[in-house]
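A quick word before the example. In earlier lectures we treated sequence and structure as two separate objects. From today on, think of them as two lines of the same record. Here is BnaA10g28650D protein written that way.
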Amino acid sequence: MSSSSFTSENYYRRRRNTERGTPKEKIVLSMKRPMEDAEGKFDLVAELETLTAQHCEAEAELGAVKVIDPDWCKLHEKWMLDD
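And the structure line, produced from the sequence above:
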């Protein structure tokens, strides 16, 4: 009378799997744990200030670069002046 689907072994296997959680619950928990670990360790304002300072430095370096427009007549390349 006992069916193979309801044996004590299958019952305990199903029970053990439900205690572990569904695959969706496992994924949610695996994503939640790193966020909980990082909580309080990341300061958004400080990070923004650092990035702003780096951006200002890069802008200053870019401003120091001078582009020289060549004198094509001295280079004997007058055809470059014709548009």
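Notice the following. Residues 44-64 form the longest helix (21 residues). We will return to this example when we discuss secondary structure assignment.
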